[in-house]
TrEMBL record, chains A, B:
Amino-acid positions noted as binding ATP in the UniProt annotation, renumbered to this chain: P112, L113, G114, A115, G116, L117, G118, S119, S120, A121, A122
HAMAP family cross-referenced by the UniProt entry: Mevalonate_kinase
Domain GHMP kinase C-terminal, residue spans: 250-312
Protein name (Swiss-Prot/TrEMBL): Mevalonate kinase
UniProt entry keywords in alphabetical sequence: ATP-binding, Cytoplasm, Isoprene biosynthesis, Kinase, Lipid biosynthesis, Lipid metabolism, Magnesium, Nucleotide-binding, Transferase
Subcellular localization(s) per the UniProt record: Cytoplasm
A single Gene Ontology CC term: cytosol
Highest classification ranks of the organism: Archaea, Methanobacteriati, Methanobacteriota, Stenosarchaea group, Halobacteria
Catalytic activity: (R)-mevalonate + ATP = (R)-5-phosphomevalonate + ADP + H(+)
Biological function: Catalyzes the phosphorylation of (R)-mevalonate (MVA) to (R)-mevalonate 5-phosphate (MVAP). Functions in the mevalonate (MVA) pathway leading to isopentenyl diphosphate (IPP), a key precursor for the biosynthesis of isoprenoid compounds such as archaeal membrane lipids.
Pathway(s) per entry: Isoprenoid biosynthesis; isopentenyl diphosphate biosynthesis via mevalonate pathway; isopentenyl diphosphate from (R)-mevalonate: step 1/3
The protein's enzyme class: transferase
Length: 340, 340
């Protein structure tokens, strides 16, 4: 049996604007999807999934049948998760030149589904890595990121971003601009995540931002403004030695990153992708003294990310109506991890 | 006895950005301050104020003594209201060339103090109008607006906007850009106001936006973007016959104005002038089906304005924790009104 894990991520800056060529900065967090793969002696694929949401559940699901698992999360999310696993299997078969390989696959995930934390990218990265290794054809991290991107693109009908899978495969903080993804340094960020238990429809949210941008020049300007926030943010994450930001203490740089996150959140609000519960969690974090807080991912529901080295934001979120779950998430220095 | 009333206002678009030369559109609403003035045969001024907040109170306050009224609202707000009345008396004495005129003045107001609804402008306009008429020296509406501006500027140490007093004196919707204020047409807007019972510190909020603007180019860009929203908004309030907006139904134009208000709110959020309770009321309005909702005025607390022809937003706001008071407010076609 071969076991790989891969981390989820938060967006510190730039979601939505990244679709239009602006830079963005996702950041891997220590919440992982772990995939165990065992080769079969036929060409079937059998998937057992547990803990696909924070509530947790266990299903047996055979990708080749029409059986619908009897679980406590929306069927569309389970279907989606299974779609990513199927696509990961296809990539692994192709990479190992083993078109008839069959697998028993177990998925365990600490990353809420569809909540903007990159659960699908983590499942895809860990799945391809475990399956290719099980077939004796391990991939470099770069090839893994590329194959995982192609798997996501297949499921999402070409609408995938390279950033999510790159970040999950490589770990750490990532700067993405168009198809260019690269790791950047980042201080040890005191990340706190709040989750409202829901999930926005990424496709619908991306389309609604596009409609606003097409309708209003000032919406296009707002997207450019988000890009400018990202360009400032990266200076404080990973300052060039010649940059005055490099003279600041780590604490000062984190405070500045928080202020930029606050501003970024307002602009996302203006683009119509926040929600009552997301704003409520953002305010809880700010009033608890967080350096900054914003929604992360597509929005419409799901998660916020805040920076707070004290326990206050975590406590504040846990007492906030509409916040189902709050947790501290370390920056994940490792991307894909070869567990067994 | 001479009695004048003057309306409060909401900002449909452009608060804060107006400080930097962008246009803004305040709009008078049928919530009034009513001032009764009776000349005295000495040079004293005696002020009786009632209902200076929505909670209501009655005080006797003599401007020339140090007596502090024993009331249930922050003393700073009462002092502020009295400051405007003193300044209005000074303008009336000057306009009527009666430096020693004394008055008994009664103030009744339906406009919450310091909540961004222009209570001070309404008190100042109605006060100058009633006092000048009582002295037999009535002013034109233009002169009244100008004198009221000068009174506000004296109290606010030169930081006043001409828009508030112009809007209260003239009524209706007003386009302001720099020192240029002019009336514009507006359809009959289904205005709903939600009030959180609080008040932001206008001076502090204006200063915090200035600090952001000085620190970040993207904050300056955001202010410009607000100006662009206003420029689009005025086309839908008062379309030029050659503008495609003129071909839309009033209903369609109001829906567009709502969308622009939503966007404007997000940009104000990014500038740091919203608050948890303001955002909570904005979401209540949106979820109740309002065409749009935003904070109005300086922010930090106070009021939101929403557009909804149905009773839903009013009901939604009344059930929203943090909303102390919600009311429908007709557009006030009249500005200052000569009651007696």
């Amino acid at each position: 049996m071969t076991v790989s894990s891969a981390p989820g991520k938060v967006y510190l800056f730039g979601e939505h604007a990244v679709v239009y060529g602006e830079p963005a900065i996702p950041c891997a967090i220590e919440r992982r999807a772990t995939i165990s793969v065992e080769a079969r002696d036929d060409d079937h694929v059998r998937v057992q999934a547990s803990d696909l949401s924070l509530d947790g559940f266990t299903v047996e699901y055979t990708g080749t049948t029409d059986d619908r698992p009897d679980v406590d999360v929306p069927a569309s999310l389970v279907d989606a998760a299974m779609g990513y696993i199927d696509a990961a299997v296809e990539q692994a078969r192709d990479a190992a030149d083993a078109p008839d390989a069959g697998f028993d696959i177990t998925v365990e995930s600490e990353i809420p589904l569809g909540a903007g934390l990159g659960s699908s990218a983590a499942v895809t990265v860990a799945g391809i890595d475990a399956a290719t290794r099980e077939l004796g054809a391990p991939l470099s991290v770069e090839d893994l990121a590329d194959r995982a991107y192609r798997a996501e693109a297949a499921v999402q009908k070409g609408e995938a971003s390279r950033a999510d899978t790159f970040c999950s495969a490589v770990g750490g903080a990532v700067r993405v601009e168009g198809d260019d993804c690269r790791s950047i340094d980042a201080p040890d960020l005191p990340i706190v995540v709040g989750f409202d238990g829901g999930a926005g429809d990424t496709g619908e949210l991306v389309a609604s931002v596009r409609a606003l941008k097409d309708r209003y020049d000032f919406a296009a300007d707002t997207i450019t403004t988000i890009g400018n926030i990202v360009r400032r943010g990266e200076r404080f994450l990973d300052p060039d030695p010649s940059d005055p930001a490099a003279d600041q203490s780590v604490e000062e740089r984190i405070e500045e990153i928080g202020r930029l996150m606050d501003f970024n959140h307002g602009l996302l609000e203006s683009l119509g992708v926040s929600s009552r519960s997301l704003d409520s969690m953002v305010w809880a974090a700010r009033e608890a003294g967080a350096h900054g807080a914003k929604l992360t991912g597509a929005g419409g529901g799901g998660c916020i990310v805040a920076l707070d080295p004290t326990p206050e934001t975590l406590t504040g979120l846990r007492f906030t109506p509409g916040c189902e779950e709050a947790f501290r998430a370390e920056l994940a220095d490792d991307g894909v991890r070869r567990v067994a």
